[in-house]
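Module 6 notes. Inverse folding takes a fixed backbone as the condition and produces residue identities as the prediction. Think of it as a translation problem where the source language is geometry and the target language is the twenty amino acids. Below is one complete input and output pair. Work through it position by position during the lab.
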């Protein structure tokens, strides 16, 4: 999503006549490197050079740093390193932020990146050569580079080798920092050397270095034991120690440990600070203990005289909203103003989300909140969550009460504001919610416009449309609205898109497209749809999409359009079509990306051991045939009854 957003902004800027400069390309290179997309990062470097822009060392260093994190990219790192050296020698790289002054030498940060790449790959002989090269250039390794070397040594040779490397660091006059200890602690944890782990924790704490949350989460000790290790030497702030352990327990979803640590703080007479209270309130919120959270909030103000910050208020607003306590939610939001704290984006998102979840949405309150957000000072920038909450509220209201013309105008305005004014990249849920609102309000033109916008975005991000189709009710609703308003060509267009992006199609969609074909006289299209779904050799083979009712609908279409010769073959094809086994491939081709979207109906994965026909269905088919004036109607009736008698004798009409 970040890359899509960057490309959208880049495209809008270039379309408006803005010429990309060195900094534009640096950002595009950086975001591609962050996504580990080195191929496209390289392409952006080439684009920059083709435009005649003389780069600084920064984009090269960014790409080199990316390579250094992946051992298999070592050859690309070496090639880039040689290119950097050559460009510096040829005067093709400028110094720092200058546009004209040339870089006379490679700096230590860039050397650190290539050293990191060699160490990551375990090439320590090459690392020594680079250190000699630096020395000849008058550059001495700093602590950052020594830590990079230490990381490589520990990774390839273990903790003991790392401890020896740290001794060499100290002998050269360097004192270990927090990152040094982090490397050693990770190694001790990885090698399950618990005594060494405790020793290193105590030493790092005595020098004022707090281990990372990631490491604390993995510690095999009881939280209280960890407090004793980290706090007993007094170099670390005791509240900070507790807060770190509380946060680690929260991230591990160990809420009992959070309460245990809070209780231990009180017994040790360690006063909690605003960060502690924020984490406690967050824990109570996630546990659904709203009344207890309210009591804790009152305690921090009245007893401890702590001024709540925006994070505290965010938790309380969110907690009330999730519990449906709208009155209290607005009370805490208004209380922020009394404390001189302007509501943040998160506050507005929580309020709008809570309003959208109400059984009966009050759109007047929601619209007033949106108006307040727009005029907020300092400005609050809406996010995709902001817009999705607005859209969800309108969709809910449209389903239950419909939308007035004024409400429809508001929805249209904010739908287009999302991209035109705020440059928010809509996701699949944005489109689904707006489409649902317009469909429920019978606004077909608006609904089709939204759908077209989504298809256009899918040209750059196909997952948007796949995720949308993974919750098929929205598209089925749109198809049915098209049928209601006799827009049958649009039904076929929706069907074609569905088959392009998704291998699974729910049966109601098949019935909709057959009905549209019937109304338009597109019998060949209807035949292609049905035979494609029932013929194993076709890429569209999905026999589970045609049940008994859909088969009867198709046969009715054949009778109406006097295609009697097709009835017996389709009955046999329907009977013999082998349904797919339950496997990943039998559902959506992109089912792994749909794990975040609403699940497909169970019927899409269902396996029927055999087909069945009911007497009512057979009776309906026979009745249609007997009412037909076609010259082959009587023979076709006999063929159908013979087929049923042979394969579905229980379904013969009595």
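Target side of the pair, the amino acids:
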């Amino acid at each position: 999503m970040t890359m899509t957003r960057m490309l959208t902004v880049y495209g809008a800027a270039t379309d408006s006549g803005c010429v990309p400069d060195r900094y534009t390309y640096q950002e595009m290179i950086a975001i591609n490197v962050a996504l580990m997309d080195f191929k496209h990062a390289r392409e952006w470097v080439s684009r920059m050079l083709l435009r005649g822009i003389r780069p600084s060392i920064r984009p090269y260093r960014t790409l080199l740093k990316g390579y250094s994190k992946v051992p298999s990219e070592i050859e690309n790192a070496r090639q880039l390193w040689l290119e950097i050296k050559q460009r510096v020698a040829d005067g093709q790289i400028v110094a720092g932020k200058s546009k004209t002054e040339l870089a006379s030498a490679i700096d230590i940060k860039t050397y650190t990146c290539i050293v990191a790449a060699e160490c990551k790959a375990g090439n320590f002989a090459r690392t020594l050569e680079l250190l000699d090269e630096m020395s000849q250039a008058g550059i001495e390794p700093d602590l950052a580079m020594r830590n990079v070397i230490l990381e490589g040594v520990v990774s390839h040779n273990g903790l003991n080798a790392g401890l020896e490397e740290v001794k060499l660091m100290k002998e050269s006059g360097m004192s270990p920092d927090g990152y040094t200890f982090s490397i050693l602690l990770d190694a001790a944890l990885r090698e399950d050397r618990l005594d060494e782990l405790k020793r290193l924790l105590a030493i790092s704490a005595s020098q004022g270095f707090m281990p990372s949350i990631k490491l604390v989460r993995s510690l095999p000790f009881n939280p209280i034991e960890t407090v004793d290790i980290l706090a007993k030497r007094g170099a670390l702030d005791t509240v900070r120690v507790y807060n770190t352990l509380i946060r680690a327990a929260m991230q591990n979803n160990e809420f009992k440990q959070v309460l245990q640590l809070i209780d231990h703080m009180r017994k040790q007479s360690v006063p909690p600070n605003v960060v502690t209270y924020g984490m406690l309130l967050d824990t109570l919120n996630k546990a659904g203990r709203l009344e207890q959270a309210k009591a804790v909030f009152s305690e921090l103000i009245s007893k401890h005289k702590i001024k709540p910050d925006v994070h505290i208020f965010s938790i309380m607003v969110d907690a009330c909203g999730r519990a449906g306590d709208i009155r209290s939610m607005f009370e805490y939001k208004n209380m922020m103003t009394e404390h001189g704290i302007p509501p943040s984006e998160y506050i507005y998102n929580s309020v709008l989300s809570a309003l959208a979840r109400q059984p009966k949405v009050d759109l007047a309150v929601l619209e007033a909140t949106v108006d307040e957000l727009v005029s907020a000072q300092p400005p609050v920038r809406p996010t995709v969550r902001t817009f999705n909450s607005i859209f969800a509220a309108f969709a809910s209201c449209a389903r239950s009460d419909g939308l007035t013309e004024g409400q429809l105008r508001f929805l249209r305005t904010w739908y287009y504001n999302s991209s035109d004014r705020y440059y928010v990249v809509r996701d699949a849920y944005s489109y689904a919610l707006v489409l649902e609102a317009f469909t429920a309000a019978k606004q077909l033109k608006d609904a089709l416009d939204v759908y077209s916008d989504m298809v256009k975005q899918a040209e750059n991000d196909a997952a948007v449309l796949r995720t949308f189709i993974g919750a098929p009710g929205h598209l089925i609703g749109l198809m049915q609205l098209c049928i209601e308003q006799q827009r049958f060509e649009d039904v076929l267009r929706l069907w074609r898109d569905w088959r392009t992006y998704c291998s699974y199609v729910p049966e109601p969609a098949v019935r909709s497209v057959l009905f549209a074909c019937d109304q338009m006289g597109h019998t060949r299209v209807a035949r292609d749809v049905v035979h494609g779904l029932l013929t194993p050799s076709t890429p569209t083979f999905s026999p589970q999409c045609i049940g008994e009712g859909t088969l009867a609908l198709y046969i009715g279409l054949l009778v109406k359009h006097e295609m009697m010769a097709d009835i017996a073959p389709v009955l046999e094809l329907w009977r013999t079509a082998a349904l797919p086994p339950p496997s990943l491939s039998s559902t959506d081709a992109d089912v792994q990306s749909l794990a975040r979207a609403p699940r497909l109906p169970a019927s899409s994965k269902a396996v029927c051991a055999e087909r069945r026909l009911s007497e009512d269905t057979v009776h309906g088919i026979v009745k249609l045939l007997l009412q037909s004036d076609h010259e082959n109607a009587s023979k076709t009736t006999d063929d159908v009854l013979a087929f049923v008698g042979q394969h579905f004798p229980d379904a013969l009409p009595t």
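Reference fact for the lab report: DSSP finds 34 helices and no strands in the chain.
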